[in-house]
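3.2 Worked example (two chains)
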Amino acid sequence: MRKEKREKQLRSEELNSILQVRSTPFSMLQDIRITFQMIMGAALADVGGLVISARKGEFEAGFEAQGQTREHAQLAKSLGVQKLVIVVNKMDDCKWSRARFQEIQEKLTPFLNATGYPDEDLIWVPIAGLTGANIVDPLDGKTCNWYKGPTFMEILDKVELEPRYPSGPLRLPVLDKMKDKDLIVHGKVENGTIRLGDKLAMMPYGSLA
C-alpha cells in the first residue's frame, strides 16, 4: 500500500467515531492535525466546537493574525457548519474568572459575527478539560458562582439545526475519494435520504453508482 493511500485510510478511520449524548448520537470528526483534515471534518459537520484556551497568552496567540483560531472559524463557516459552540477551556487556570471569560467573548464575538455567525448561532460554554468541570456534570457554586448555563454535553444534546428535508431529492456533494478494493467517496448529505442499494447518478456526467 502506498504511503499516501495508507495515510488517507488511517485518516478515514480516525475521523469516524461515535459519541452518544443522551438522546442524540454524534459523529466525532476529531483528528485535525493538518489543515486538509480540518477541512474534511468541517465539511461533514453541522455543529463545530471552537476550543479556546483561557490561559493568559494562549488565547491571544491563537487569535492573532496568523493564529489558527481565525483560520478554523473562517473555514467552518465557508464549509457549511451551521452553529459554533465556543468552548473556553482551562478556566481552572484563571480560577474561573468571569472577567477573563467576558474578555474572550468581547474580543472574539465581533470577528465571528464578521465571519458570518450571528449571535444566535454562537453558544458559549466554560469548561476545565483537565478536571472535567462543566463537561458532563454542572458546576457547583464553590467552583464557579456566575455560570448558570448548561454543560457542554447538554448543549450538544439540545442544539437545534436547520431542517434537511429527508423526503426531498438527494443531494450529496462529494468532498474526497480514495481507491481501495472499490472507489470510496466521502460526502455530506445536504438533502434527501440515501439507503443501502440505491442507484445514484454521479454528476455532471450522470454515471450510475
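3.2.1 Second chain
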Amino acid sequence: MKGASKPPLWLLLVAPAAAAVWPVCARAADGTDSSAVESPDSKAEAQALFDEGRSLVEHRQFAEACPKFAESQRLDPGIGTELWLADCYENNGQVASAWAAFKEAAAAAALVHDKRETVARDRATALDTKIPRLMVVVSDTAAAEGLEVRRDGVIMAATAWGFALPVDPGVHTIAASALGHKPWSTTVQVAGRADTLQVTIPALEDAPTLAAQERNPAPRADTIETQPPPAPEAPHASAGNGQRLGGALLAGAGVLGIGVGTFFSFDAKSTYDASNQGDCSTDNVCTSPGLHDRDVANQKALVATLAMGIGAAAVLSGGILYFFAPRGGSASVAIAPDPHGAAMRAALAW
C-alpha cells in the first residue's frame, strides 16, 4: 500500500505461494525472478542491501531506502526487488523513475509468466497521468555544429531531441557543447505535475580564439618579412639625464657658495687687520672707529661661514644626485678663469 509503514500489501497478494516466507525470499519468489550472479558474495551483499532498504521503508525513510534497493537490484536483479524499488520511487515523489521501474518489472514478469506482471502494469498505468515531461529542442543551426547535448550530465541521443521525455520533478540541467564553440547550459525546475516543459538550445557562439583567428588569419611563412628587432632603449635614460643635470647645477651652485664664502672670509680678515692699525691696541682696546671695523669684520666672517657651509652641503648633495643617477648621459662642472675673476662653467652631454 503506497505510503504504508509496513511492506506493501500488493506485493504479498501477488505471490500467494511465497507469502509465508516473504521476508526471506521476496527477492526471488518462486525462483523465477533472479538472474545469475557473479559470486555468492555479490548475492549476499544484494540481500543485505535489500533488507536494509525494507527497514528504511518501514520507517518511511524513502530517500535513503531507494538507493539501497537500486544497488541490490544491480548486484542481483529480481522482479521482487524491482517492485520494491518502483514502490519506493513512487513514495519518494520520483514518479518517472517509479513508472520506468514498474514497466521493467512487468516486462521481466511477462517473460516467465509471473502473476506480478498484472500488478506492475497496473501501477505503471496509474502513473501515466502524473508524470512531468521535459522536451529538449535543438535549433537547426545548432544541430549542424556536431552538437553534444547532456541532460543532468548524461548524453542525450539525437533521436531523443524534440520528444517529451518523462523526468522526475525537481531541478534539471541541460548543457550543449561543440568543437570550436562556447559551451551553453541552463537549469530548469520541473514541477510535480503532468505538464511538458520545453527547453530550446540556440546556435552556439564561436569560441573567442577561433573567432579571432578567422578575423586575423596568420600570414603564410613565405610572405612574412623579417625585420631587425628595434634597438633596446636605455632604461630610465631621460630620468637619469634630468637627475644628473640637477645634481650638476646644485654642485655648481655649491662651488659658487664656497667661492663667495672664501671671498668674505678674506675680506673679514682684511677688515679685522685694518682695525689693528691704530684704532685698536694689542689688548683689544678700540676707539669708536675700531669697534665699528671689528663689528663689520665679524659680520663678514659670519657671512663667509654660512656661505661656505651651504656651498659644501650643495656640492655634496649635487655629487650624490649626479653619481647615483641612472646611466645614459653625462654632465660636468668646472671653474674656469675669467678676465673679471673666476667663473663656473657647466658642460652637459647626452
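3.3 Remarks
The first strand starts at residue 133 and ends at 138.
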